[in-house]
Amino acid sequence: MTYDIDKIRAEFPILSRQVNGKPLVYLDNGASAQKPQVVIDAVTQAYSMEYANVHRGLHYLSNLATEKYEGVRGTIARFLGVKNEDEIVFTSGATEGINLVAYGWAMPRLEAGDEIVLTIAEHHANIVPWHFLRERQGVVLKWVEVDAKGDLDPQAMIEAMGPKTRLVAMSHMSNVLGTVFDVKPVIEAAHAHGIPVLVDGSQAAVHMPLNLDDLGADFYAVTGHKLYGPSGSGAIHIKADRMAEMRPFIGGGDMIREVHRDRVIYNDPPMKFEAGTPGIVQQIGLGVALDYMMGVGMENIAAHEKRLCDYARARLDGLNWLNVQGTSARKGAIFSFTLEGAAHAHDISTVLDKKGVAVRAGQHCTGPLMAHLGLNATCRASFGMYNTEAEVDVLIEALELCHELFA
């Protein structure tokens, strides 16, 4: 299939605008991706002509909204390579999904001295919920570091597991280094010792085809706003046997079957974990976004981004005053960097913005990784399905200006 980048770009209306008098070059996809017109239209249609609350109504609009909303569960399952759509729990994003596991699965069964194994490259969303357990229940966090290239040795993860390990929590793809971690051997080794594994798929799900039934993680979280869908949308895949071990996280609404003065009967999973009025329109928009991505083809998106990554890598490597974090052969199209000298990441991003180039600057919600790298902050250029080699060239020109200003 020919990857028609011009057609794809035309379907994202924001890419036609200018910023500071320059064509927008949007390279902040790792934080949040832009939305295609089909998603914008679906959200508008849902709010303007089809909106009602789901599940409890018997009128036309409620039935229509329920049908569209619940249909997204199957879409997410297909996108993630999951046969049983009842293993898909709707969330507001990966953060809620990970917290659901922390409160619903880990908190009732972990005790003082029990261990959770993490990588040093985790996003705060996959760190702070485990710190809650450390603070409140005496759980021990064990950290596995990446090497100088940004690679994570699966064997190091395996060796970190011990008789007190109760959970392994790790990213599939680093949001700073761009490294795609080899999670499957870790999952297999953990399962051989009866240890469940949670994978943060917030970045990986955007850039590569997934088959979670084959991967085998017990919990796999994704977030909609990075998947070209609305903010406030997302899901977590939870294996059915793990669902059976979990208590509800939030009470109210559709997670209830019966309520009495002296007892409450919960709904069956996945609705057992979906309390209150949900993000109806957000999830509908996410379903459209995933259909859009699958229509383009995840293999095609991955191939396009691989070409883009190789081109960007070669161009950035030619700047001998630029320090790129993460040089793994398994690197995806995420580039975090600093300039030699005193230029702060915020100053660099401000100059780039004047040229219409949007990048992220800061710690990227990865405090332990930044400390491991010995850095206060980096700039991050993260690419998506609509970015081009010409935009890489604009980034390079803007970086050369930064070098002239700050050298």
Write a structural description.
The chain is an alpha/beta fold. The chain has helices at 5-10, 37-49, 60-80, 94-106, 128-137, 154-160, 184-192, 204-207, 212-215, 240-243, 280-296, 298-317, 345-354, 367-373, 389-406, and strands at 18-19, 22-23, 25-26, 88-91, 115-119, 140-144, 165-171, 197-200, 219-223, 234-238, 256-259, 264-266, 322-325, 334-339, 357-358, 360-362, 378-382. A hairpin with an 8-residue loop joins β13 and β14 (334-339). α3 crosses α11 (280-296), α6 packs parallel to α7 (184-192) and α12 (298-317) packs parallel to α15 (389-406). It starts with a helix and ends with a helix. Keywords: Pyridoxal phosphate, Transferase. Its EC number is 2.8.1.7. Belongs to the class-V pyridoxal-phosphate-dependent aminotransferase family. Csd subfamily.
Which key terms come to mind for this protein?
Aspartate Aminotransferase, domain 2, seven-stranded mixed β-sheet, 407 residues, Aspartate Aminotransferase, domain 1, four-stranded antiparallel β-sheet, alpha/beta
Structural class assignment = alpha/beta
Strand content is 15-25%
Strand order of the largest sheet: 4-10-9-8-7-5-6
Mean pLDDT: 97
Low-confidence stretches: none
Number of strands: 17
Biggest sheet layout: 7 strands, mixed
CATH class category name of the largest domain: Alpha Beta
User: What global shape is seen?
Assistant: globular
User: How many discrete domains?
Assistant: 2
Q: Over the alpha carbons, how many angstroms does the gyration radius reach?
A: 22 Å
For this structure, the CATH topology of the largest domain is Aspartate Aminotransferase, domain 2
Q: How much helical structure, as a percent, in the residues?
A: 40-55%
CATH architecture call of the largest domain: 3-Layer(aba) Sandwich
Query: What is the CATH superfamily label of the largest domain?
Result: Type I PLP-dependent aspartate aminotransferase-like (Major domain)
State the assembly state of the protein chains.
Answer: single chain
Terminal residue distance: 45 Å
Total DSSP helices: 15
